[in-house]
């Protein structure tokens, strides 16, 4: 995290960062999400209504307008968290099936943290997609999003609702099936959170157990050798913010050796693919397969990761024509 000499310097750096990003943000608009996983999973479950505590609007403020211009996406959503609005910069929003109270079933939990400078509302479509597969999904943000604190905040928010008799989520969260996920700085925070000991996790919530981690285009401040949770690390071939040939393959993915781990690079994905509409989000389908496999041990989703001919290895979304960055898995994953 950079320290700025003045608030004016911070704003100048923020605007320059967004301007630089504009040069790379267009890629995902030129290509649709393709491949086996996207064909199977890159759409919300039919007839599933999603409820949410999120209060969102068009990104009309100064920072939100810049984001809409940079991303070339007028549909992107924002909440009122500062600096996109005038509310507290710290926010949490929970997504879940609207009919959750109609059953006694407990649902797995996904805690997600977005990228630095992002707004939680930017990931609205991805959160709804995951929730439609019968997950409780919480997204937390403090605008920096670089450390495990935001994942912890998300778990605490779901735990509060789970204990509240007046909440639709009362008694519905299965914390023993929790996944951590994140994008960019939040992906870095995901690897950090996946490195926490069981004792540390239970200080956050006594019922908490992590069953999977999903870092998407993660920042550099995390190492793979400390990870204690099965992990799928995703990168984008057109990402110039987190180049796939940089830290993801230098000190993150290949150093995950104590738990099963997989890695894949989406051929057309830019750094902003996770913010796109689902049809332009190259990571959408495989992310659903991953959370279904780790959160529910779903047999069809499992086929993407397990077995000699695991589907991820042949998915064209993750196989560039030159075969430079093919899907990979470590020895523990290959032995499953």
From TrEMBL:
Keyword check for Repressor: no
Entry annotated with the keyword Hydrolase: yes
GO molecular function annotation: hydrolase activity
Keywords, alphabetical: Hydrolase
Domain PET hydrolase/cutinase-like, first and last residues per copy: 92-299
Protein name, entry field: Predicted dienelactone hydrolase
Native source organism of the sequence: Pseudomonas fluorescens
């Amino acid at each position: 995290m950079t320290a700025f000499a003045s608030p004016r310097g911070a704003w100048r750096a923020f605007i320059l960062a967004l301007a630089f990003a504009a040069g790379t943000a267009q890629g995902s608009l030129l290509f649709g999400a393709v491949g086996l996983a996207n064909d199977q999973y890159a759409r919300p479950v039919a007839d599933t209504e999603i409820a949410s505590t999120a209060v969102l609007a068009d990104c009309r403020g100064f920072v939100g307008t810049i984001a809409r211009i940079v991303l070339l996406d007028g549909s992107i959503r924002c909440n009122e968290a500062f600096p996109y609005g005038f509310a507290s910069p710290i926010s949490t929003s929970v997504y879940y099936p609207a009919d959750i109270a109609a059953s006694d079933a407990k649902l797995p939990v996904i805690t997600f943290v977005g990228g630095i400078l992002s707004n939680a509302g930017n990931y609205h479509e991805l959160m709804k997609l995951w929730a439609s597969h019968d997950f409780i999904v919480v997204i937390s943000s403090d605008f920096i999003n670089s450390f495990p604190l935001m994942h912890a905040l998300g778990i605490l928010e779901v735990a509060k609702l789970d204990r509240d008799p007046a909440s639709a989520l009362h008694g519905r969260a299965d914390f023993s099936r929790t996944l951590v996920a994140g994008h960019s700085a939040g992906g870095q925070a995901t690897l950090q959170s996946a490195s926490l000991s069981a004792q540390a996790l239970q200080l956050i919530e006594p019922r908490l157990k992590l069953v999977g981690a999903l870092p998407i285009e993660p920042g550099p401040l995390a190492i793979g050798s400390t990870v204690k949770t099965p992990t799928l690390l995703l990168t984008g071939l057109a990402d110039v913010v987190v180049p796939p040939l940089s830290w993801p393959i230098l000190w993150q993915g290949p150093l995950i050796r104590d738990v099963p781990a997989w890695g894949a690079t989406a051929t057309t994905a830019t750094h902003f693919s996770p913010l796109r509409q689902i049809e332009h989000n190259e990571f959408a389908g495989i992310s659903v397969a991953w959370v279904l496999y780790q959160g529910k041990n779903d047999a069809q989703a499992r086929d993407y990761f397990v077995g000699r001919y695991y589907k991820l290895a042949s998915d064209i979304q993750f196989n560039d024509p030159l075969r430079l960055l093919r899907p990979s898995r470590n020895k523990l994953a290959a032995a499953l």
